[in-house]
Request: fold
Amino acid sequence: MDEPPIETLSILLGLVVLALALGMSVHVLLRKPDERAAVAWIGLIWLSPVLGSVLYVLLGINRIRRRARKLRSPRQPVAAEAGRVSAALPPAADGLAMLAKIVDRFADGPLLDGNRVTPLIDGDAAYPEMIGAIDGAERSVALSSYIFSHDPTGLRFVDALERACKRGVAVRVLVDGIGALYSLRPIRTELRRRGIPSARFLFSLVPWRVSFLNLRNHRKLLVVDGQVGFTGGMNIRRHHVVGEATRTPVRDIHFRVEGPVVAQMMEVFAEDWWFTTREDLGGEAWFPPIASAGPVVSRGIAAGPHEEQQKMLWTLFGAVAEARRSVRIVTPYFLPDEALMTALRLAAMGGVEIDIVLPEKNNLPLVAWAAAVRLDPLLAAGCRLWLSPPPFDHAKLMVVDGVWSLFGSSNWDPRSLRLNFEFNVEAYDADLAGRLEAIVAERIAAARPLTLETLNARSLPVALRDGVARLLTPYL
Reply:
């Protein structure tokens, strides 16, 4: 049998390559909303059809949301509020009514009145309150932490959890699978030894599940008896107790929350626990009736990579866009995308006072280097940037117009806004916002201003280092 001529094989191969390039191009056109990314990928595919197509399949297709959706199977909420009617905003917040409507479109629950929020500075104030609440528990304790270290602070929590179990309290502890590795001695070993029910969120070394390791539960939640909640940016580790002599103390702010919004916090924990263990938490031990506890109108905002909407990104963007007088931001990691950068610059050029407080010495130098490249446009637009001195400030806080506050686990970086499972609370209350602005003012008073002159004075090697770090922003 005669072999096909070389010309025929060449034509067939050319048709295959053409079909491959066309197929990949169609996928780019349908799946890549960013025009610059779409043009770049299509150009690479047509300049080098085989190599470009292979690289696009390996690196260009975003599998994060699909994987996260697959992991987060639907669960029927226990604490579903009646209807979607949000609580009325206090008169001082009338200027932010549009922001409330924006968040109401994608948040899982409505704004709820009757809440009390108490800021707790550092582990020195937060940990005794949290352990005291556990010791006072009568029915249930739900604790979720990204990092739960096996150190003197972590063991104090374990002691309190063990005491609660011995009183007959239902206890559940959830630790992130990667966060658990921050401690050389796993805390779950100690929890199991003492008979405390616990689970590890999304960790496996099985090859076909390793890709899920990028999806982290970064939430920090403690709910006691379904009535009292604690949330913020603080993990459970000795570093946060600034008063204790440690080599690397870490400052932070946590919050005690009371009132109906605690049910939203408990709902988020129950969903995470069900996903991890398939145990469905329900009943009054976990979801009791909750009476009014204060004047704060607030709502929990749970966000994760399994959702179509980038809830936290949209919340931050909406808050900046609706600000009329002031925006105060405290964050350890500051790598906002171009749209959020533009919103900050436009607000500043429109006369909004914008203060951004960042650590002078970051615990993740690569993040600080990448952030440095993005700061000069903000300064040029009139934003004020402040570098807070050591110890490292891990606080995550935002206050708008002296009435709206946002606190929780999210950072201003791609990982928090796109990859992590996060939980934050928005609150409308002038008194709370005033207390938080006072905290921000204290940090600013101790900080040094960052100026354009300082940035421009960087040496060429430092500027190149920062520029290279910027290219790694999507992975930080």
Q: What stands out?
A: The mean pLDDT is 88. Residues 114-294 form a domain with the Endonuclease; Chain A fold (CATH 3.30.870.10). The longest strand covers residues 112-121.
